[in-house]
Amino acid sequence: MPGKIEDYALIGDCETAALVCNDGSIDWLCWPAFDSEACFAALLGDKSHGRWRIAPAGDSRMTRRYRGETLILETCFETAEGAVTLIDFMPPRGSASDVVRLVRGERGRVAMHMELIIRFGFGANIPWVRRTGDGELLAISGPDMTVLRTPVETRGENMTTVAEFTVDAGDTIPFVLTYGASHRELPAVIDVDQALRDTESFWTDWVDRCTYRGRRRDMVIRSLVTLKALTYAPTGGIVAAPTTSLPEKLGGARNWDYRFCWLRDATFTLLALMDSGYFDEALSWHNWLLRAVAGSPGDMQIMYGIMGQRRLLEWEATWLPGYEGARPVRVGNAAHVQLQLDVFGELLDVFHQGRLAKLKLDDGSWAMECAFLKHLAKIWDQPDSGIWEVRGPGKHYVSSKVMSWVAFDRAIKSAEKFGFRAPLAEWRRLRETIHRDVCDKGFDKAQNSFVESYGANVLDASILLLPSVGFLPPTDPRVIGTLAGIEKHLMRDGFVLRHDPRRVTDEQEPIEGAFLACTLWLADAHVLAGHLDQAETLFERVLGVANDLGLLAEEYDPIAGRQTGNFPQALTHIALINTAHNISAARTASAKPAVQRAHS
Questions:
Q1: What distance in Å separates the CA atoms of residue 73 and residue 87, rounded to the nearest whole number?
Q2: Which CATH number covers residue 321?
Q3: Using CA atoms, how far apart are residues 167 and 104, in angstroms rounded to an integer?
Q4: What is the CA 173 to chain-centroid distance, rounded?
Q5: Which of 61, 227, 263, 432 could hold 343 in an S-S bridge, CB 3.0 to 4.6 Å?
Q6: 410-458: per-residue pLDDT in tens?
Q7: Do 408 and 459 belong to one domain?
């Protein structure tokens, strides 16, 4: 059985990532890229679906940490006979992708066991395994190939590669698993000592560029490193998570593939990177967005693949039992065809914030923005699927209309500030029309709150963004009433739920865990309102449920006391970065993400 979601650590090479359990087992790895099929899929089943475990042969006690501010994982196993450290990392991608595992003896003499189960195709395909003339272990299935290199003698048992070995104090025993296309030559052998030095230098040098010096810098750095690790370096696209189908509700069916790039996260991501000093990464993300959405405005999607792919067809891996029995296991995401009006606002806000920060933008971006706004002018009053990608008939979601307002607002401000030619009179008229429409139809006077959608009597956590995007000032009585309504109806054990529990569904409550990014959005709203103590309480509460390595999933189930949803979740870590900036800036009266969006 897989571990708890919070039992996992992340390693990666900025093109794919692996999850390492605290028992020394790599239970998830998609090769060669984030959106490739997994060769280790035990996370969504059991060890028969692929894993790679190295651990003491007998009982042991475990502690772990990342080496400094890097993505090099060090897991220490203490046994009655001694102690060893398992060092796991993926070097910056060269001509091939490698997972390096070093077993270092710390004390005494420890008997170890290694078990390698390669199953390509999300655990479905058993490869043909043979030994080369150089003693390397080669595994091939269709287009995929891995080669294991180690001085340890291995043997095959029941379609599994196993080994027993001992480690003395002062010894280091290497294991290197390398991926390559099966029609090519074997990947070159790497120098593991040099690879370790290169990996440590890569992350140390990258972290040294961080300009954030505020409170809880350790957690901000870990979140930034995680965000960098979820970036597909060749294109600049950032995946929402490296996993698929980790359930929002334990045992439930809300299991989605998050190995894609969402436009919903665009502005949050841009500000998190720029405000932390990472302008190159911000520009790469911006340019990925520009390429991904290029084309007819009517074809714009809510998400794209890491290279900008549009067809993210959804299917079910029926042979996988799912994480703790949560089925189905989905590959691909059918929500990519949904209409979500909020993405227009995100896109225009990204371009505007980029200009304000003096990023070097493409000369043709303004013409593209104008085309998108011309299309939005025709469809903003249609029902859509909303920010949470609800499947079924569309609604007039308040947050979708607000982000439509943002689209025209940011375009107007860009035209005014940077002297672009634009139909300003028409855009100003539409901006006012949308604003009035939202205030008239999206505000429930009886509850003194904005609601989920026009005519609804339930709330939705996305309306927390109204003051953050500048739709209304934080002192507006309607905003104050909305925050009070959120705290009354959407909070569970101090965390914010994404959906109102009063909302009628076909599932038993609780529908899912608390949404961690929304809890941080409430903190941001309190920052704007000047309630810093409340903001800090919420911020620290989220940090308090991070795992021992500082990693966070999409949600947290306060009843079970467990993280839920795909892991680690980019949006959660992005929100953590931005809230940290907001709180620290509020203490020094400087402008940071919430103020930047609200008053840009």
A1: 6
A2: 1.50.10.10
A3: 7
A4: 33
A5: 263
A6: 999 999 999 999 999 999 999 999 999 999 999 999 999 999 999 999 9
A7: yes
